[in-house]
Amino acid sequence: MDFVQKEFKCCGGEDYQDWSKNQYHDCNAPGPLACGVPYTCCIRNTTSVVNTMCGYRTIDKERLSVQNVIYVRGCTNAVLIWFMDNYAIMAGLLLGILLPQFLGVLLTVLYITRVEDSIAEHSATFTDGLLESGAKPSMEATGTGCCMCYPV
């Protein structure tokens, strides 16, 4: 969330007051973060040192009074606008990832059916084996000794 807030210059989901639902930033919570927003919501001056407490006690204030201190725009809309601006790139990436996967699955299915057809064709050709119904009859064992051996 910190990256999104820094990159898109936004704060919270819908607006900066969404941070009041967080147990650490709730106005009734103990600690230094109570009723404040993270420092990534702060409007930074590039010439000065980063003030990590600039969002202190901003949740309970009106939007107009804090708009020069923190970003008041929500990140949901900011990210959605970015996706809309870059939909062609996103569609290209999605197609570039999914198309090879789909082709791999298709080729695998074709290969499996080809192997199964080959197995079925060869098993039909060589059915006159030892264990099939066309096996040769065994010799009659009459007149043999105790071990079923023929006399020499």
UniProtKB/TrEMBL annotation:
Main location: membrane
Biological processes, Gene Ontology terms: protein maturation
InterPro entries: Tetraspanin/Peripherin (IPR018499), Tetraspanin_EC2_sf (IPR008952)
Disulfide bond keyword on record: yes
Keywords per UniProt: Cell membrane, Disulfide bond, Endosome, Glycoprotein, Membrane, Transmembrane, Transmembrane helix
Gene3D superfamilies named among the record's database cross-references: Tetraspanin
Transmembrane segments: 87-112
Subcellular location: Cell membrane; Late endosome membrane
Keyword Transmembrane helix attached: yes
Pfam family of the protein (one): Tetraspanin
Membrane topology: Multi-pass membrane protein
Family: Belongs to the tetraspanin (TM4SF) family.
Described function: Part of TspanC8 subgroup, composed of 6 members that interact with the transmembrane metalloprotease ADAM10. This interaction is required for ADAM10 exit from the endoplasmic reticulum and for enzymatic maturation and trafficking to the cell surface as well as substrate specificity. Different TspanC8/ADAM10 complexes have distinct substrates. Promotes ADAM10-mediated cleavage of CDH2. Negatively regulates ligand-induced Notch activity probably by regulating ADAM10 activity.
Subunit composition and interactions: Interacts with ADAM10; the interaction influences ADAM10 substrate specificity, endocytosis and turnover.
Stated name of the protein: Tetraspanin-15
